[in-house]
Design the sequence.
């Protein structure tokens, strides 16, 4: 399961635009929309179904609710239904079905269509006892309260003059220091946001992401299209020794412990602008990033307690777009 949390750190975006919806909403078909040929539709449907069947076969222990409902069986049946929605064209069909969270057996808690697949009793059990997000430490809470009282550039400068000792406070301080530079710049980046590019915003607005692991021994935030170990492991679980191995899906940054062996703990994706209507954001926000986080969650919990730990732990990831940021977490 996964849910999008409000992790907005930008002061320049209305609240209604700050959180990326993880739900996929197919566009309404129009009279002018091109229709796909039966041969094309059959080809896409076969590809989608084979992919789903392969993932279904590779599932380990399934989640059986008190009513006897098997959650993965319900998702498999829904994902196999080619008539579950009408799409504008074949490209949208492929995106909506092949890259649906259902095809990774993830439940989007914000999607009423997913909720409708289950009875009220089953859904109540599914959403019960979700692990709470861990809050900031006391020192960081106090520091954030102090920062929230700032309403002028001079006030912000005064807050930033004091060097912080607490690790969380240092991260907050670094982030605010970067944003002060953006706000006082003679050439405002907010006026030309889309022209600056994904890398520019990642470095100049969210460079703080590189420091998230500084207080953790042997841990580093690795930036720039890296392949997750657990994604690679999942993709190769059915590969024979004589077959060519597949590489995992690349993400924009990884939280990794450099040890023997290396261990991944989190991941993140970035884009140039915050655009919930774009295919890139819908793909990366609703499918790609949650799936990588899910791989990490399954792998780490299997090392300490198996499937029973899946209901007590979570893995958080970050989704950035220009000046905006959002917290994602599969549960």
Sequence:
């Amino acid at each position: 399961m996964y849910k999008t949390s409000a992790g907005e750190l930008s002061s320049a975006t209305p609240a209604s635009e700050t959180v990326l919806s993880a739900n996929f909403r197919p566009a309404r078909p129009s009279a002018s929309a091109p229709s796909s040929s039966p041969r094309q539709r059959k080809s896409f449907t076969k590809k989608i179904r084979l992919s789903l069947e392969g993932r279904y076969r590779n599932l380990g222990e399934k989640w059986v609710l008190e009513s006897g409902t098997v959650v993965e069986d319900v998702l498999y049946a829904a994902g196999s239904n080619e008539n579950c929605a009408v799409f504008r064209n074949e490209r949208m069909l492929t995106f909506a079905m092949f890259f649906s969270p259902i095809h990774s057996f993830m439940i989007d808690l914000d999607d009423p269509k997913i909720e409708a697949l289950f009875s009220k009793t089953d859904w109540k059990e599914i959403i019960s006892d979700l692990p709470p997000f861990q809050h900031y430490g006391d020192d960081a809470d106090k520091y954030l309260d102090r920062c929230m009282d700032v309403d002028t550039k001079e006030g912000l400068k005064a807050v930033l003059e004091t060097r912080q000792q607490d690790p969380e406070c240092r991260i907050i301080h670094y982030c605010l220091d970067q944003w002060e530079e953006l706000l006082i710049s003679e050439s405002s980046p907010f006026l030309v946001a889309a022209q600056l590019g994904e890398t520019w915003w990642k470095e100049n607005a969210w460079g703080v992401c590189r420091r998230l692991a500084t207080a953790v021994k042997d841990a580093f935030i690795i930036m720039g299209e890296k392949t997750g170990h657990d994604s690679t492991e999942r993709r190769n679980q059915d590969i024979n020794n004589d077959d060519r191995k597949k590489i995992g899906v690349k993400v924009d940054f990884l939280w990794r412990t450099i040890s023997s062996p290396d261990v991944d703990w989190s991941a993140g994706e970035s884009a140039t602008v915050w655009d919930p209507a774009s295919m890139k954001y819908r793909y990366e926000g609703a499918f790609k990033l949650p799936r990588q986080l899910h791989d990490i969650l399954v792998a780490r919990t299997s090392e300490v307690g198996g499937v029973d730990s899946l209901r007590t732990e979570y893995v958080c990831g970050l989704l950035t777009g220009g000046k905006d940021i959002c917290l994602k977490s599969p549960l």
